[in-house]
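Researcher: Sequence of mRNA guanylyltransferase follows. Predict its structure.
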Amino acid sequence: MIGAMDLNASPLPEEDEDTFEGHIEEYAAQERIESGAEILRREREERRRRLKRDRPDDRPVHAYQPAMHDQYYQNKNYKSYDRNKLPPGWLDCPPFGQEIGGCIIPSKVPLSEFFNDCIPPGKRYSFKQVIHQLRVLGRKLGLVIDLTNTTRYYPTSDLKKEGIKHVKIQCKGRDAVPDNASVNNFVYEVTQFLSRQKHSKKYILVHCTHGHNRTGYMIVHFLMRSQSMSVAQAIKKFAEVRPPGIYKNDYIEALYTFYHEKRLDSTPCPSTPEWKRELDLNGEAVPDDDDDGVPAAALHENNEVTMTNDDVLGDEIPNDQQDAFRHFCYQTLKLNFGGRGNMQFPGSHPVSLNSDNLQLLRQRYYYATWKADGTRYMMLITMDGCYLIDRCFNFRRVQMRFPCRNSNEGLGEKTHHFTLLDGEMIIDKLPDSRRQERRYLIYDMMAINQASVIERPFYERWKMLEKEVIEPRNYERHNIYQSRNPYYRYDLEPFRVRRKDFWLLSTVNKLLKEFIPKLSHDADGLVFQGWDDPYVPRTHEGLLKWKYARMNSVDFLFEVTDDDRRLLYVFERGKKKLMEGSSVEFTDREPSFYSGKIIECTWDPDVQVWKCMRIRTDKSTPNDINTYRKVMRSIRDNITEEVLLNEIQEIIRLPMYADRIRNDSKAHLHTSSARRRFWLVEKSWGIYIVYLGVNEIFRYFVIRQSFFLFFFLIL
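Model: Prediction complete. Tokens:
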């Protein structure tokens, strides 16, 4: 029977090594005179002098650094870095931790045999020993993830010979925690490796320099995204398998901040291990090692900045993961995949309202909503993260929580997994203050937990959106805030989330005259949504948008030639098409500043030119020629607000609309009555009253000083 592996034990020596026991007498004799640290320093210096004198060519090979690079750091007065030295504290740092996350082994960095002259035989730790010990225990190493900031510690050729995959995710040490893109890359590599294991189990060795802070930081991220646990639980779990765990407070704080959790006072940071408290020859503490001697980036204060629609939200994800997500979106929307790299943003696009498609309002049943002047995003929610999908069809991860609905009316333990939504990001300017707040307005759902719903009518998808996405979030948030120890802080998420409202056509006049002027964000018109329509990807001829005349716009590609010609392009069949005779005016900057950019322009009928409104940083291509023609048609038809309202007044008198408006109004009143069950907490003269319902048994809990009186009344 194979015994359990002691991952903190020193590795077995290779056949060509002297055993550590053979040197016990020599070391013991010296220890009677000198301390262990003094012996180590003296022997290290002796080996270096002997190595330099006798074997000048048999030294570790390191990457060549250009003279300019060296001179730069000398000018910066950076301390010179000896690439041949051992990492501080490496000798006495335990080599392994125990298994975590199913098959992950945290480790300090194995050192190649080039370092053997600096390491006593019993302390040597290389990949040959790691592989040998795992084989003895019947375990096979399949993946090594290297988090160090250098390539000097070992060559990867030995791993490749053994068929072991090596992934390099370069992370600085010292006071710089790994960046979010590196974390996403790590989690993806581990997840993919685990998903490919079918018949035989293989292990993952994760190491930084000592296998504690960077390694622990990454593993905790993986645990948080793959299992249901809090940050405190994940940190504790890592500390149990790799004592003392993460011992840098900045790393622990970064984890709590990233996952929007409150850190309790009862979760202190472990003290620095004894083996890491190494002193130099002057008795000074050796600074933490970032592997190549390059200082970590200075920490900057997080000054408050003004939010704009052009801000880039979220963190990059690996290209392979993005390709997989793109395929899921195309499959959900029942689109052909095409060639790699040819996938375009598949979200539904409205068309401009003109005198022809205005008649669709008479033929089909429509609801209306305001057209927010924000940034278009689709959103993909998975159990390991939430991803914003921009108009370039790029995915970026944001840390958000979307619990599933619990049929038992309690807190849901599961989160959404492959739920696809559509919406727009706006920036609310809060009244009576200068504070801004991002809000994601969700107006459609295409998939829920991997099941496509695009063929269902819009009104069903819209109701599902509230029931399955919004209500579970609100319910959990309410209950978390009521508890004494909230483990998740919704208020720390990067933006708020709500479902966008749609109204009967009979309310359009109030929508234009009262609602839009009071909005805390910009709006540039209306959107008319077919109430019974399926979700139609890309251009949807039945999804109509009406803009104020001054806001009708086209997105062009603008270029300035060498002979100072100013050209506007749209796309036709995926290629640039020059708009002959079209010109554009700029009011704030020189035209050359806009060259090569996508610009949104509005038409000025008085001078017959386009005027630049803004740069579209969220788009990489201009409008298609067909979109351009539809916008021009809308501009020529000039459906003003007055014309639109007159048309709608006639439309809602049609029997089709009159009957459905009457029925929908009754249904709305019935729903409102059913929702009259609510909690109302009122404080008056020290008396707290909790009201539980209407037309039901309800209770008043009257609390005055230390007396509790219970009244049960029936209406």
